[in-house]
Amino acid sequence: MTTPPSDRTLIYAEDLRPGDVHALETFLNVQLGQVYEEVGETGETSFAMRSLLILVCDSAGLLLTLLAVERPETWQRAAIVREWQRLRSTAHQFNHCEGYDRDRWWNQVRHFDASDETAEQDRIRRFADAGPYPETGH
Q1: CA 50, CA 52: separation in Å to the nearest integer?
Q2: Rounded to an integer, what distance in angstroms lies between the CA atom of residue 93 and that of residue 76?
Q3: Angle of the 18-39 helix axis to the 44-67 helix axis, nearest 10
Q4: Which of 10, 26, 49, 66 is most exposed by smallest CB count within 10 Å?
Q5: Among 134, 82, 79, 73, which Cα is nearest to 108's?
């Protein structure tokens, strides 16, 4: 049984809301906190866990900042997708671990909006039409 983080379906990154980011960040902090408790406060694993917690916080902070931009530029749109995917893929790992909050699914988004998706499909079609090798005229 899956329990989605909200009753909305995320299709594009433009659908993300600060509440989605906060929910995912909170989920990760709880899960990573459990791991941190298990590994203890000494050694390389502990250092790695602290670093991962910092990266989650930084990634969520950047994502929240980018979501506040009224008309994001192309690089900001790409960064929103990348940061959501980074947090989502980190959370996804906990769906396969015993003893953790399992079956929590976070939607994958691949594009900022429908126009970005269409543009990518057009690029793929152009590449497929051109073939993998440019014609040399021989």
Answers
A1: 5
A2: 26
A3: 180
A4: 26
A5: 82
Over its C-alpha atoms, the chain yields an Rg (Å, rounded) of: 19
Token pair 């995917």 is found at: 85
**What integer is the mean pLDDT of 23-36?**
87
The one-letter amino acid code at 114 reads: A
Residue type at 36 in one-letter notation: Y
Res. 4: pLDDT tops 70: no
Angle between helices 18-39 and 74-92 (to 10 degrees): 40
Confidence of residue 3 (pLDDT cuts 50, 70, 90): very low
Q: Find all residues with CB under 8 Å of 63, minimum gap 6, and list them.
A: 16, 21, 80, 83, 84, 87
Chain segment 89-122, per-residue pLDDT in tens: 888 877 666 655 555 666 777 777 778 778 888 8
Helix, coil or strand: residue 17:
coil
